Amino acid sequence: MPALGPTHVEHAPVIESAGSLVWRERHGELQVRLVHRPRYDDWSWPKGKLEEGETFQAAAAREVAEETGKPIVLGIPLPGLQYLTGEGRVKRVHYWAAQRASRTRDAGALAARAPVPPVSPHEIDAGVWLSAQDAATRLTRDADRTPLDALVRARDEDRLATHVVVIARHGKAVARGAWYGDEHDRPLTPSGHAQSAALVPVLAAYGVGTVVTSRWDRCAQTIAPYASASGLATVSSDHLTEVQHERSPARVARTVRELLDVDGSSVLCTHRPVLPTVLDVLGQHSRRPVANALPTRDPFLEPGEVIVAHVARTSKGPRVVAAEKIAPPLH
């Protein structure tokens, strides 16, 4: 996420929130969705506070659905905001671009989400689609124009319409020295299973519709909760195992390139020794600032961590225009 900047308030309790700028194009015009909150009599972006143990991404998807009545799929991260509330507390809001989810294309991701209540008229009593220019005028708070300006720039630079390729390192596994079975059967620990469960709402928020994993148990177990919740078939690959990667890193690279090329969003779960090849392919297809920000040191990702690569289609092929590193929530 973009840096949010200092608060200049020492020891102030922080309220963490998340939301989205939901966008669409109509007749070549960029439009965004605003909501009206009767309690504050203001027009703003749909957003809300995190629930306990919830990631920012899951909160953004949930809150937008609760305040607009429609599920969304997250896109690129946008600049967040930070300010003092009337009670003197610091509030941080994390924003993403987003589009309305498709009941067909995103059916798996939607099935993996928890149900949300209908829009409460006491919380939101109106919503409207406006052009970006009209939205800038309608917004009650000047600060809310910051993520809007970033959204417009991304659209002008062909960085707004994206799909994601999520690179996941398997969850925490039983130590090699403590396992007496075959290496490919080495399983997750209880904390590893918790990490795999925590992945479900994150992958669902990004609309992941293709699941690709190393055939070894610790990777298969990491991705199994999402595959089960979404009803998606899992593509298990020997190429993504540690042994096969040593023999042919080119096959791993080809798998990553294929996921970059397709339009739908996907997740690829693999092992620490395979990550340098995966990240090299991402770097080759990234904008320079994104490539420079990718991990370069072992272990690249901790167990259960993921990188969300946002991929735009360009005349020169797929281009990673943004990347986020997400750790599983602490329990």
From TrEMBL:
**Pfam families in the record, alphabetically?**
His_Phos_1, NUDIX
Q: Which UniProt keywords apply?
A: Hydrolase
Q: Which SUPFAM superfamilies match?
A: Nudix (SSF55811), Phosphoglycerate mutase-like (SSF53254)
**Record carries keyword Hydrolase:** yes
**Nudix hydrolase domain mapped to chain residues:** 13-153
The keyword Hydrolase is assigned to this record: yes
What family classification does the UniProt entry report for this protein? Belongs to the Nudix hydrolase family.
Identification of the protein by name: NUDIX domain-containing protein
What are the top taxonomic ranks of the organism? Bacteria, Bacillati, Actinomycetota, Actinomycetes, Micrococcales
